[in-house]
Amino acid sequence: MSGVTEGEGSVSLDLLKKKMADFAKERNWEPFHTPRNLLLAMVGEVGELSEIFQWKGEVPRGLPGWKNEEKEHLGEELSDVLLYLVRLSDICGIDLGKAALRKVKLNAVKYPILCNQKEF
Ligand SMILES: Nc1ccn([C@H]2C[C@H](O)[C@@H](COP(=O)(O)OP(=O)(O)OP(=O)(O)O)O2)c(=O)n1
Question: Of 32, 70, 91, 111, which has the maximum CB count within 10 A?
Fold first, then answer.
């Protein structure tokens, strides 16, 4: 792995991957970080993320009116989902960044821009 730094700028998937690997190793939790366990943990966190929006009705973009604590909580749950996804990909030997870029390309082929959408 190269270029794993913790600067003020953007955060790389490689950095998160290393952080999660170190976290598990330092605690001797590697045996528990199996694909199935990580998948179930991630789905659990998706549930916690869903609870934040549950019963709120439609929420406008940017979350106007939300308290700082609510936004911080949202950031925590989004992060839990991302971290487990990164770890799951790593454990499965999938380069998540590469796979996602490939998928973006596939999506563009599957859903071409139509003429009447270009000015949107
Ligand atoms: N075996 C574990 C347990 C936790 N974590 C890490 C990944 C997640 O980012 C976070 C999840 O921790 P919790 O299970 O304590 O979940 P929450 O932080 O959501 O706490 P709570 O469920 O109490 O709200 O910790 C991990 O990598 N491996």
Answer: 91
